[in-house]
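chain and backbone:
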Amino acid sequence: MKTVLIIGIGRFGKHLATRMTELGNEVMIVDKEEEKINDLLPCVTRAHIGDCMDEKLLRSLGVSNFDICFVCIGDNFQASLEITSLLKEFGAKYVVSKADRTIHEKFLLRNGADEVIHPERDVALRAARKYSARNVLDYFELAEDFSIFEIEVPDNWVDKSIKQVNVRSRYNINIIAIKKNGKIIPVTSAEHVFMENQHLIIAGNTKDCSRILDMK
């Protein structure tokens, strides 16, 4: 469990606060609009109505006591920049700031952000990758050149084992799990036989994985 401070309860901040709470974290939210705070009161640990550009208010939150501070202000970059800087000045351990434009990232990092996230860009990239290939069911990029994909079993792999297909040597990827009926089953043997209606969880260099994404 972590203690989390979320500043700015727009659409992203609201979803973040809700999910963080569901995952068992202690969440405090802050926004200057009372209505946004009231909507989330039943599901968060603490809430405060106010403008975090007010240094007194921000200092009073005890930001150094939180494991992570999120700055989720999307409509006012100057406010996001100033609050990010103040959080670090007041001893915040780890600050994650939301950016709507790529150019904003370098300024947020210079002003103290430990990490900058781009929700809309990241979702768009994920959707493009997922829907541009024939059999990609889900996709997650761990690094610029390393990804995990959930794919359908290619037709010409059905009734063959991992060893017979020679997956690692031929394609330079790893089959890490099988998904069937919503259940994830780790793959522990090269003797596993691929079956119809199975989904594969594969991992590897993104370019190597891409070679099998359109296989029939």
About this structure: The longest helix spans residues 119-132. DSSP finds nine helices and eleven strands in the chain. The radius of gyration is 22 Å.
